[in-house]
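In response to reviewer comment 3 from the previous cycle, which asked for concrete evidence that the modeling workflow produces usable outputs, we include below a single protein chain processed end to end. The sequence was submitted unchanged, and the resulting C-alpha cells are shown without manual editing.
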Amino acid sequence: MRMREGIVKEITDIVMEKVKAKSLDFVLDKSGVSINGVPVVLYAPENVDFTNEIIEALNKPGRATAATRKPAAAGSSVTPAAARATKP
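The workflow returned the following C-alpha cells.
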C-alpha cells in the first residue's frame, strides 16, 4: 500500500506541474469507469491528452523518485492528490 501511495504521489506531482504550467482547469482519467462499467469520459480529443509527457517525465534519467527521496519529517503536511492522468 505504501509503495502505491508513493507512485501515485510521483505521478500526481508531475501532473500538477503540468496543470500549473498550462493553466488547466481539469485533468480526467480516461481509463476510469463508473460503478456499472461505463467509461466516465466518453470522448476527449487526442490533442489534450498529455499522458506521454507525464510518462517521459517519470522516466527521465536522474529524476528523484519515491525510492530515492528522504521521508517527510514528522508533522509536515502533504497535499492530497488533486488530479491524475493515465492512459488505458
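The two ends are 22 Å apart (CA to CA). We consider this sufficient to address the reviewer's concern, and the full set will be provided in the supplementary archive.
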